[in-house]
Structures are given as structure tokens and as C-alpha cells.
Amino acid sequence: MAKKLIITAALVGAGTTRAQTPHVPITPDEIAADVVACAKAGAAIAHLHVRDENGKNSMATDKFVEVVTKVRKAVADAGLDIVLNLTTSGSAFSEELRLAHLPILMPEMCSYDPGSMNWANSYVFLNTPAFLEKLGAKCIELGIKPEIEIFDAGMIGNVEHYLKKGLLQQPLHCQFVLDVPGGMPGNLETLAYLLPKLPEGSTWSITGIGKSHVPMMLAGLAAGCDGLRVGLEDNIFLEKGVHATNAQLVARAVEFGKVAGREIATAEEARQMLGLKKQQ
């Protein structure tokens, strides 16, 4: 039997706006409702960013607490289960603030971006060596699984460095995020180049940004991925000119997985596959 497929819903991200799509969840209540909808559609993991009162990207600890508290209550009230993966990305914020919500909220996963890049040729997506050491140590201390987001090939070399230093622990879970300008393109050549470089025993998931979203899902399934990431953080359309909801994007990924002969993993099955520590 083929291994089960983990669907991650990246609901809001740091930059998707209401001007781009009316469906992006911005407020804590909207994010909580969308997590429930995505869990019902088949998502095992919800990857969360938060926004301030003006809809701008935020790393404020109190905002994370508000959002995650509402998400957890909404999921429990619906009788559902989902793994929460909280972002630590945020070059505009202090490194201390980027870590502050983790010991308070104790998510099962958090993002780990193992390098810096010129994001969309417009600003520096900054992840300093000092920050990556602190984040790796914090994940080990708290029992949080880092989701290692790979945007460029050099980031895999950085991963090897932190493995040797004991600041990352195998088995790793890597999330390819392809076709961000400034990173590697979303195509078959990129995937074929990156996959052999993953540390042995790693699990991996894939997403493509914008027009490469569907092609990278299909390529990932053909290459035997462990997961697909979908959501309005990465792509706002169901088809050209048709705005998608997060739940619709999850449902499409579920259908793609089934066509490829893959059963869809529940949250509990995803925990087993990724070696997650279920937090209380």
C-alpha cells in the first residue's frame, strides 16, 4: 500500500491581501473558521501566520495567543483534530519576538527557514546564523518539530551544517517552497536536483507559488512526496480568474492524491509519520 499523503493548509501567509482575494482569512475568528473548514476538507496540518488589526503581518505574541486559542477551541468544538504549525518567519521583527510565542503556545510544529534570500528581488528574507541556532535549540528544548522550508539549494547545505552541530535532529521534515522570485523555479529540473540532496530518512512536502502551484503538486505526487501544501499563502486561484477558498484548495489536493493512489493522512497519522510530540 502506498504511504498516506499529508495535506498542509497554509491559510493566510504574511502578504496575501483582501485586494488580491476576498477569501483570505485575516481576523482571529476568520482564521479559526478556516482551519475548521480545511480540517473537514482533509487537511492534517494548518500552517499559521497572524495579522494585526489593520490586516498587516504580525509576530505579536498576544496576537498569536488570541488566534491559536480561538483555533484550538473551534477545532475542539467541531470534534476535529489538526496539527498546528506556527510560523517563525518575519524579517521585519526582532529575533526574540519571532521565538516568543513558541514556549507559550507549544505547537507541534514551527517553520524553520534555513537561510536568507532576496525575496522577490524586493527585500531580504533574513534568517541569520544566530537566529537559526537559537530556533534549532528552542525546538529541541520544547519538543517542537521544525518544518524546514527549502526555497533554494544552498539552504540544504545549511541544514547539513546545523545537523552536524546538533541543532537539528533527524529525521527531518522538509517543505519545498518553489517559484518564489529569488529562489529556485518551480519545475521538474529543480525538484530532480533537490531531492537527492535531502538528508537520508527525511520526509518532504511540496508547494509551488502562483502558476506553479498545480504543476508542483503533480510533480510531487509523481516523485512520491509525503505531503502537499496548499492555501492562499501560496496561490489564490482555483483556475485562471476564479478565486479559491482554502477549503477548496485542500479538497483539490485530496482529489489529486486519490487519483495518484494515495490515501489521505489524518492528523494523528501525520503525527506518526513525522514523529511529532502531541502537546497538551
UniProtKB/TrEMBL annotation:
Keywords: Metal-binding, Transferase, Zinc. Gene3D superfamilies: Aldolase class I (3.20.20.70). PANTHER family: 3-KETO-5-AMINOHEXANOATE CLEAVAGE ENZYME, 3-KETO-5-AMINOHEXANOATE CLEAVAGE ENZYME-RELATED. Pfam families: BKACE (PF05853). The keyword Protein biosynthesis does not apply. It comes from Propionivibrio dicarboxylicus. Its cofactor is Zn(2+). InterPro entries: Aldolase_TIM, BKACE. GO terms for molecular function: 3-keto-5-aminohexanoate cleavage activity; metal ion binding. This is Uncharacterized conserved protein, DUF849 family. The keyword Metal-binding applies.
